[in-house]
Amino acid sequence: MKKQDKIFVAGHRGMVGSAIVRALQNEGFENILTRTSTEVNLKDQGQVNAFFETEKPDYVFMAAAKVGGIVANNTYRAQFLYENLMIEANVVHASYVHQVKKMLFLGSSCIYPKLAPQPLKEEYLLQGYLEETNEPYAIAKIAGIKMCEAYRDQYGCNFISAMPTNLYGPNDNYDLQNSHVLPALLRKFHSAKLNNDARVEIWGTGKPLREFMHVDDLASACMFLMKSYDEKQFVNVGVGSDVSIKELAEMVAKVVGFTGQLMFNTTKPDGTPRKLMDVSKLHNLGWKHQIELFDGISSVYNSVKDREPFVISA
Questions:
Q1: 137 carries an active-site annotation
Q2: Which of 172, 187, 212 is nearest to 14 (CA)?
Q3: What is the CATH number of domain 7-168+211-237?
Q4: What does the alpha-carbon distance between residue 254 and residue 43 come to, in Å, rounded to a whole number?
């Protein structure tokens, strides 16, 4: 990428997209194209084509998606499948038609089989059944990966894919009905502290293991891959270590300063037992994360704790 190139960040208002925009700006890129969903509806093929025809981006970061936690994924199954399929199909195809130099598609670690060996290697894709609660979202993301591969095979497009682990950071979603586990815990513990509650309820047994990466680290990895990686095989992006939900809850409680009881509601689903990414491929390419989990959670909490209630991203 050169400073004069036009770079389209799809989904720039989301947590991932906004982090990529920050990373681009920090490196001096000024020709950054962004559009809100009201300006260009990525689910509408005509609007997407018109945008690409007019703006002719050189590079595309495909960070737009309909996302949510376990409740949202399981409740809005049709929406998660349809909207993500439409968004990625339109952007991938338009990138081909309008001769984008390179596109980076962002997926999710939920693409892997529920009971895949740990840690998750890239070659484990499609080697088993998916986790039921987020199967529609996972299928949509797998379709995006396969679209990038197919357009590379048939048309020679330089379309690459990256699969990030669980993310947190600025512009996260703190809606307790639609958020992921880490922001939900931050909001729960913060509210409990303010209300002097004796306990905080946590879904599940607390035993599942999860890996968490600060979104600024992901943006750094995306910049690295866009500049230096041109292969068909998608790349895992993570930190290479995980914690149990119980350990995470205890860490969040410590950051927030909540000293009450943790109550695990075992009638609620746990989800996948473990989702640790094998990031040896990315490490061998020359990139490694910089932000450790406790430091990252502390930074995020300090940035939002005085805005009550926490800002809920659109």
A1: yes
A2: 172
A3: 3.40.50.720
A4: 42
How far apart (Å, rounded) are the C-alpha atoms in residues 9 and 161?
A: 15
Query: Does pLDDT of 314 surpass 80?
Result: no
Q: Residues 58, 5: contact at Cβ < 8 Å?
A: yes
Residue 106: left if φ>0, alpha if ψ -120 to 50, beta else—which one?
beta
- Spot the catalytic one: 137, 151, 168, 174: 137
**Structure token digits, residue 83:** 């909207």
37-to-75, 139, 174, 191 alpha-carbon distances in Å:
22, 23, 21, 32
CA–CA gap between residue 142 and residue 153 (Å, rounded):
16
Domain-wise residue ranges, the chain: 7-168+211-237
Residue 309 has pLDDT above 70, yes or no: no
Higher pLDDT, 18 or 72: 18
Q: Using one digit for the tens of pLDDT, what is the confidence trace for 5-38?
A: 999 999 999 999 999 999 999 999 999 999 999 9
